[in-house]
Amino acid sequence: MLKIVLIAPYQNMVHDAQEVCRAYGEQIEILTGRMGQGVELARKSVLEDAGVLISRGGTFLSIANEIAIPAVEVAVTPYDVLRALQKARNMGTKFAIVGFENVIGSVREWGALLNVPVVPVDVEQTDSAKEIMAKIREVIHQEQVDCILGDASVIDIVRDMGIFGVLIESGKASIWAAIQEAKRILLARLSERETHATLRGALDQAAQGLILIQNEQVQFANRFVLDLIGRDSCVSVPIESCLPESVCEFIRAGDGTRTTDVVQVVGQLWTIERIALPGKGEYFVTLQRVEDIESLERRVRQKKSLDGHEAVYTFADLWGSSSRMQRMKHTAQQFALTDSSVLIVGETGTGKEVIAQSIHNGSSRSNAPFVAVNCAALPDQLLESELFGYEEGAFTGARRGGKAGLFELAHGGTIFLDEIGETASHVQQRLLRVLEERRVMRIGGEKVIPIDVRVIAATNKPLWSLVTQGKFRQDLFFRLDVLRINTVPLREVPEDIPVLFEGLLKQIWYQRKGVGTPPRPVPEIYRMLCAYHWPGNVRELRNMVDYLIATLTSGVVNREAVADWFYNKSLPDPDVYAEGSTREREEVQRRYVGSLEEVQRQLIVDTLFQCHGDVQRTADRLGISRTTLWRKMKQWNLG
């Protein structure tokens, strides 16, 4: 049980505090200690369940600065100073009050009202006894004071100097007020402790592991984790001493890009997530059984199958650390805070729908539907009926009872119009009316239905050129182009290719294989990847990774495997013939073409040359065994 401890810097305060406690029936612990001694008593009291400390003067300041729990000050009131002055009248006519700011701070305000010459002298906590003596000598010399008033530590110094001194004692009223304040604080701390106990109990009931890490030490682990690792507690224990090795490796691998993974713990697969907290070196880690997630996913899918309109991507799915990607991501995050229409412009495969879903999930509409439609995938008449709905009998084949359109289904949420440049003129006209009036009328209907929908459109065509050609309405263009995001082609941010490649490699590996360690890419492949022009952008890179995982026969993605993809799958770069190319692209095209055997031979020759004929280094760089390399060299007479 937490208690209140009063640390009195002088003996009379102990007697006064005891009398106050007897008079009012209070139960507090009273100790005697001044300055450093008082701090040591405070430390010991904290170990013995002190919840609030009480003291005064310099001792209070020292305790408040060095002890973590709350401390209450016994105030020095004008009445306390008047009582001390009354005692000092027999010692002279002019006085100095020496003490810390919390003791003498009010003298400047009410000193003139005392009708007694009083000089305040400030003492800092950092002042030594010598420095305090110097201040006292100075005020005696300059002000001709007869007597010094101060707290217990000052009076000890004054007496050693052979000068008259009077102790400013706190009255019983001040002690009583401090005890009452300490009681209020103690009740608040007890309530807080109760809340923390309730919260701890709730976290212990969670059906997943929750771990708080600070500087690679466990600061909190809920009961789920403790049962998993077979411990009763692991507070302030290094992670390697209590957590499984796979979990420690994941925590230490934090480089700002990998925040989730799948690990194996005690024979089971677990999803693990690391969330960086504001404090340096602080992480919140969650662990959940894969089978539990699969079970939950089945239930969610059953529920979602009733409507199917949801956004699954967030800003965390926008990978890439280049400045252009970060600026685009920051812009999208800002747009998520508004409710205006957004136009996303960019090449195919640059993640336009990922951005749209991220904006929706980052907005106030995140709990409402996200309805996506590809305007290029549907014939004009069908697109019109899908967008705006229709009434029963509106046309041949119309569903009995009619059908709500996508704008109605998106009410309260977001509608994403992909490839908006492909819409016919009559559909554009209806779209414009819906955006202007925020109302929709079904085909064949007469009732106007109010809607609250945010519109995000996307196009891979220069929409304004379509306007100038008369293929797209100018007024609709300006309705859609309120906020604009231009996506970044992959060829323009080659520094992001390694991050994207490795992220996709892990993601697709676990989607396809489920378990095991993903293949390890060798650094040499990134020059080849960065030299390619990626007409399909991230979608093409994803296809490449899928191809590599399907065709790999070892645990390494080497130059040979990548060259095989370039030979079978890569597309010609029109810029090579139109405006020239970089030296790297020319090198890739020149050296790595022909049959697979020829590509392999050229890779081995190049790598042997780079490694100065060192067979072991060459084999390591290519990701093959030394024996295989010798066999290939013998086959092609490369000895």
CATH H-level homologous superfamily name of the largest domain: P-loop containing nucleotide triphosphate hydrolases
Fraction in helix: 40-55%
Largest sheet entry: 6 strands, antiparallel
Cα Rg: 38 Å
SSE class: alpha/beta
How much of the residues is beta strand, in percent? 15-25%
CATH architecture of the largest domain: 3-Layer(aba) Sandwich
CATH class descriptor of the largest domain:
Alpha Beta
General form:
elongated
Average the pLDDT over all residues and give the rounded result: 82
Which stretches are poorly predicted, pLDDT < 50 over at least 5 residues? 575-585
Distance between the termini: 83 Å
What name does the CATH topology of the largest domain carry?
Rossmann fold
Short description:
With 639 residues, this protein is an alpha/beta fold.
Overview of this structure, please?
Residues 318-550 form the Sigma-54 factor interaction domain. With 639 residues, this protein is an alpha/beta fold. The chain folds into five domains: 3-75 and 174-188, Rossmann fold (3-Layer(aba) Sandwich), CATH 3.40.50.2300; 78-169, 3-Layer(aba) Sandwich (Rossmann fold), CATH 3.40.50.10660; 206-293, Beta-Lactamase; 315-488, Rossmann fold (3-Layer(aba) Sandwich), CATH 3.40.50.300; 494-593, Helicase, Ruva Protein, domain 3 (Orthogonal Bundle). Helix 7 (129-143) packs across helix 8, helix 23 crosses helix 24 and helix 28 packs across helix 29 (626-635). It starts with a strand and ends with a helix. Residues 575-585 have low confidence and may be disordered.
